[in-house]
Design goal:
This protein is mainly alpha-helical and 212 residues long. The protein has two domains: 1-94, no CATH class; 118-212, Alpha Horseshoe (Serine Threonine Protein Phosphatase 5, Tetratricopeptide repeat). It has ten helices and no strands. It has helices at residues 2-56, 60-64, 75-82, 87-102, 106-115, 121-137, 141-153, 160-174, 178-191, 198-211. It is elongated. 34% of the residues are buried.
Length: 212
Amino acid sequence: MNKIKKHFQKKNRIFFYIIFLLLLIISIYFFFKKFFLYPSEKKALQELNYAQQYLYQGFIDKALNRKKNKINYLGFSGISSKYSFTKAGNISKFYAGICYYKLSNYKKAIDMMKNFSAKDEILSSIKYGIIGDSFTQMRNQKEALKNYIIAANIRENEITTPLYYYKAALLSFYMKEYKNSKFFFQKIENKYPFFLYKKNVEKYLMFIENKL
């Protein structure tokens, strides 16, 4: 009986410790959210607005502020590092990736896009599309093609899917992989009749048919 009693006492202590630990974690989480995360999110959003204004005006370097110009704002580069745990910090990585791409810093563009967490499926497609474009500029055709295919297949839609199949088809054509190129072009022809470059698709398919 004593052994049984001790066994249950031990079980009760373990249960109590687990409950106490869970309550402690929940308390820390709400404390962190109220006194640290919310104020940080607010500051990050303010900084994001400044950077977006420069981007919309076409001042890419100022929007990024990678050189830490003597201006009282962080820019996408600073926001993405200082407030990386916030939503504004996360979307800043996406903007920073675009800015680095436009400034021909393709390696940094890839790094930023890889660190960007995209919950929206269209944004996720664009993320992999930019990575693919960056690898294309760096003449890494294999990685570029892989990312175009990922971008095309994340979510089927009338905008990003045919666009990235088109890029995959053109890259395959450039690589003289005509069967792969034909496969991607045919996907566009069969499923996306209103694609912007539909006439180009038809011309390439005719050329590939003659080539094969």
